[in-house]
């Protein structure tokens, strides 16, 4: 025999309320539905649980015994609801997040430190490997991804920022090879280019006002790691395309200089990707909210202003 826990819950509510009408009102169900389900439960058990009179309900002996079990179901259900409510009020548990290593260290370091301190009940677990993790198969709560996203009906995504990009080289390289004056001059320079997911170097698309140039200059080195290409550029190996956000500390240190600063490269969107389920765990929600707040906050706005000044000064 398999009993429906919902019927035991209903029986417990009837016993607590003292009448079918009161139980129906409390459960927001028609009285006829409550009566029918009680009768079905009694039929399944083979005995009456309640003696009904016009004035009151009285539990039978087996009714008292079944009520003890029904109350356990009620207690477990209420405990589960309380746990869910508490988790929404106090996010907790392990939060597994995948993100690029350079993004974590260069951009999100202060946010991650703040998040850990503000949410002591959450255990933050970061995967900084360059691979694209399987969020559902590997049980990740969220991933940060750059660029265009593949279609996947099992996942949902939220754009959290768009990073401006520029061309950069070291002062030593520009002294040795000269500074390009227009996009076509890049074709005779040493370039360091990012690899796309297809394994091909990404072209450089530059625009200025109504002008547009798409170039595929010969690459002296290619890699799928922007931080490595930035390191090579800092060491004088060539010109690379990098997010202005990532380049700024190296410009301030005198290790990099903007190249063709009056030409723009397409912005790179940053996405928070998560399993597309209806109910998001509270730990994921608060982390997603913290990400969104970071990229509309004063720190990010100040960085954008510094980037504009940096490129403007280089163009003069």
Q: Can you describe this structure in just a few lines?
A:
The protein is of the alpha/beta class and 316 residues long. The chain is 44% helix and 24% strand. α1 crosses α2 (20-27) and α1 (5-17) packs across α3.
Distance between the termini: 84 Å
SS element count, helices: 11
What is the H/E order?
HHHEEHEHHEEEHEEEEHEHEEHH
Q: Spans with pLDDT under 50 lasting ≥5 residues?
A: none
| SS-based class | alpha/beta
Q: For the CA atoms, what is the radius of gyration?
A: 31 Å
Strand content: 15-25%
* Biggest sheet features: 9 strands, mixed
Task: Name the helicity range.
Answer: 40-55%
How many E-type strands? 13
Mean model confidence by pLDDT: 86
Q: Give the overall silhouette.
A: rod-shaped
């Amino acid at each position: 025999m398999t009993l429906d826990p919902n019927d035991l819950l209903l029986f417990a509510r009837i016993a607590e309320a003292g009448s079918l009408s009161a139980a129906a009102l409390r459960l927001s169900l028609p009285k006829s539905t409550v009566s029918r389900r009680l009768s079905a439960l009694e039929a399944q058990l083979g005995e009456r649980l309640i003696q009904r009179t016009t004035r009151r309900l009285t539990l039978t002996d087996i009714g008292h015994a079944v009520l003890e079990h029904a109350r356990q179901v009620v207690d477990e259900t209420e405990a589960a609801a309380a746990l869910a409510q508490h988790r929404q009020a106090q996010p907790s548990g392990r939060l597994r997040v995948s993100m690029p290593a350079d993004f974590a260290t260069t951009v999100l370091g202060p946010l991650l430190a703040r998040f850990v301190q503000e949410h002591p009940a959450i255990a933050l677990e970061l995967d900084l490997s360059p691979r694209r993790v399987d969020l559902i198969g590997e049980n990740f709560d969220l991933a940060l991804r750059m660029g265009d996203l593949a279609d996947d009906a099992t996942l949902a995504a939220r754009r959290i920022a768009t990073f401006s990009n520029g061309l950069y080289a070291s002062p030593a390289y520009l002294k040795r090879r000269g500074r390009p004056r227009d996009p076509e001059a890049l074709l005779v320079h040493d370039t360091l280019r990012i690899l796309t997911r297809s394994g091909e170097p990404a072209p450089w698309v530059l625009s200025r006002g109504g002008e547009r140039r798409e170039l595929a200059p010969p690459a002296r080195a290619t890699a799928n790691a922007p931080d490595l290409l930035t390191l090579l550029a800092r060491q004088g190996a060539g010109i690379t395309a990098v997010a202005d956000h990532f380049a700024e500390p190296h410009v301030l240190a005198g290790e990099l200089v903007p190249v063709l600063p009056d030409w723009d490269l397409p912005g790179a969107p940053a996405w928070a990707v998560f399993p597309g389920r209806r109910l998001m765990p509270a730990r994921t929600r608060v982390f997603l909210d913290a990400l969104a707040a970071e990229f509309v906050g004063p720190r990010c706005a100040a960085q954008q202003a510094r980037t504009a000044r940096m490129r403007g000064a280089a163009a003069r």
